[in-house]
Amino acid sequence: MNRTIVDLLADNAEHAHAFAGRFDEVQEGQHPEAVTICCSDSRVLQDQLFGNETPGRLFTCGNIGNRVVQRTDAGEVVSGDVLYPLAHAGTRTAVVVGHTGCGAVTATYGALTGDLDGDDEPSGIRHCVDLLGPHLEPGVDLLPDGLDDAAAVDRLVEYNVDRQVEQLVNSDDVPDDTDVVGVVYDFQDVYGGERGEVHVINVDGERDPEVLRGEHGEVADRVRRLWTY
């Protein structure tokens, strides 16, 4: 057997031993507190970044670029995997989780600036970049002059989170009483806090840090943005 699978199964045995008694309350269904939409980057530990060890607490969605939309014959709509807990499990909190150094944003930035030939990518990856492209293109035009590529990407990470939050806030399919929060997970020392901290950048479409700190004083020290536009 592939050594990686052997190791994964061994780790799963430890997980099963530790968690065996934690599934009693969710045998018949789920009512998660929040749905999180994270990038599927292997460095983004979707449950661990929120300290979650409770089955049924978080409904986790992952894809490259932490996108909330999918493309259908009717155009772009909020993805079904994001909508499911909102529509069927009583969840009323959605958290869009971007992260520093995002590869999907990097690839989209490269495609928009002509530094990357997207035609060289497999069609599935091109599809994901194509979904992000129209949403990020206005942000590229707004970037301050003089940024290196890494700094530009981290600002576009915020811009992308803002656009995904906007999609949820404006969608008729998302219940009106849903709280939508946009955050950035930093493991590259970009925001100046601890590695692995989550920084709040957007709440229900509001992205002014001063306003957010005033309205959400209990988490004021976690509100931080790299740029406003």
TrEMBL record:
Binding site for Zn(2+): 39, 99, 102
Cofactor section: Zn(2+)
Coiled coil (UniProt feature): none
Family: Belongs to the beta-class carbonic anhydrase family.
Record's keyword terms, sorted: Lyase, Metal-binding, Zinc
EC number: 4.2.1.1
Protein name in UniProt: carbonic anhydrase
Cofactor note: Binds 1 zinc ion per subunit.
Catalysed reactions, as listed in the record: hydrogencarbonate + H(+) = CO2 + H2O
Class of this enzyme: lyase
SMART domains linked to this entry: Pro_CA
InterPro entries per UniProt: Carbonic_anhydrase, Carbonic_anhydrase_sf
